[in-house]
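Hypothesis: this fold can be encoded by more than one sequence.
Test: take the structure tokens below, design a sequence, compare later.
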């Protein structure tokens, strides 16, 4: 008898009534991912729409960098204010690019497909969906723009690197010269994780060495491909570290901006 069932209910699959035969804590990974992602979404949404407490000289929150609207507080716009008529939070002009990069990331797709959509929740665990269409329909068809978001993410990472350079400058009330505080170190660690995540991206690896028939004829691209491949091997780690670090960096600057405490300065 003909059937149009697919996936675990397909006619060629073994008839197993149990959801899974796994005896380990397979649910721990998707559950943890769900909690962390949900917490980040709530926090970043609050901070993005608040439009306040994102700058404490010389520190600018990565959620608001670069700050490009006339709503930006004094001293936060290092690249001018070309969006003078923007009525909403300045963060909403910028976050679409790093957010789009992460949402379309190959690793993050796996993570939130499993934790939010249960597609599937884990290996060898039946998913609740009866039909599988992959990423061939809207809105998942938009995942194909990942490479273009990577280019934007590189520009954002360059701006955040510039912010770290500025963070070595004097804060309000200090003399000219090189200075360093706890915020400087936090921003430095954050941008390192962001670069490791960005350069370890699957798209970056393909851009470096994809579509080459002979690596021997392209030694520079081969070397770059090798470096990107090493980072790509730990892509999930850098994805998590950079996600946590960018939120912690923003929160630290938020505490400074609200006057919760003064930034410890080392020199």
């Amino acid at each position: 008898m003909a059937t149009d069932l697919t996936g675990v209910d397909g006619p060629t699959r073994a008839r197993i009534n149990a959801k899974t035969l796994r005896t380990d804590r397979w649910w721990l990974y998707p559950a943890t991912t769900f909690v962390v992602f949900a917490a980040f979404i709530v926090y970043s949404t609050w901070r993005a729409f608040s439009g306040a407490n994102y700058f404490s000289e010389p520190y600018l929150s990565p959620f608001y960098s670069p700050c490009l609207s006339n709503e930006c507080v004094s001293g936060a716009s290092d690249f001018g204010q070309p969006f003078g008529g923007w009525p909403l939070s300045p963060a909403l002009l910028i976050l679409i690019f790093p957010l789009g990069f992460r949402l379309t990331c190959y690793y993050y797709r796996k993570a939130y497909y499993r934790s939010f959509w249960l597609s599937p929740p884990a290996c060898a665990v039946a998913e609740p969906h009866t039909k599988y269409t992959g990423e061939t329909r809207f809105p998942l068809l938009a995942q194909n723009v990942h490479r273009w978001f990577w280019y934007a993410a590189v520009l954002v990472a360059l701006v955040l690197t510039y912010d770290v350079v500025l963070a070595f400058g004097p804060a309000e009330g200090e003399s000219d010269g090189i200075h360093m505080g706890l915020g400087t170190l936090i921003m430095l660690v954050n941008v390192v994780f962001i670069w490791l995540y960005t350069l370890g991206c699957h798209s970056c690896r393909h851009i470096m060495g994809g579509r080459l028939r002979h690596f021997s004829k392209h030694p520079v691209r081969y070397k770059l491909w090798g470096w990107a491949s090493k980072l790509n091997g730990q892509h999930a780690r850098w994805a998590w570290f950079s996600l946590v670090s960018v939120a912690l960096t923003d929160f630290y600057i938020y505490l400074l901006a609200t006057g919760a405490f003064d930034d410890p300065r080392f020199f």
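The longest strand covers residues 55-56. The chain has a mean pLDDT of 89.
Hypothesis status: open.
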